[in-house]
């Protein structure tokens, strides 16, 4: 299933500067695997060594924060928009 993936500025070096790219997969896990295959190295910036979404990265499928639904097993229906948003902290 074709989806679109919004890429945050900090990760656009992996996508040749593109703010949005196409993705494929029926689950978020499959979309991220394909994303890493198309843009090598980007997966390691989103997932930790154990394959979980990094603590400081928020991922949304549509309006849903995947941490509060099915995580990497969240369904990604055709046409879904996936947003990768790094956490912002500061004081």
Automatic annotation (TrEMBL):
InterPro entries: Beta-grasp_dom_sf, Mopterin_synth/thiamin_S_b, Sulfur_Carrier/Prot_Modifier, ThiS/MoaD-like. This is Molybdopterin converting factor small subunit. PANTHER family: SULFUR CARRIER PROTEIN CYSO, SULFUR CARRIER PROTEIN SLR0821-RELATED. It comes from the Bacteria. It holds the Pfam family ThiS. The lineage of its organism: Bacteria, Bacillati, Actinomycetota, Actinomycetes, Streptosporangiales. Gene3D superfamilies: 3.10.20.30. It comes from Nonomuraea africana.
């Amino acid at each position: 299933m074709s989806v679109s993936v919004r890429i945050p500025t900090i990760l656009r070096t992996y996508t040749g500067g593109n703010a949005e790219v196409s993705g494929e997969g029926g689950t978020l896990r499959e979309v991220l695997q394909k994303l890493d295959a198309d843009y090598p190295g980007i997966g390691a910036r989103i997932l930790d060594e154990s394959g979980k979404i990094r603590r400081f990265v928020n991922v949304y499928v549509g309006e849903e924060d995947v941490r509060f639904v099915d995580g990497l097993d969240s369904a990604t229906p055709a046409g879904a928009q996936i947003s990768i948003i790094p956490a912002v902290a500061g004081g």
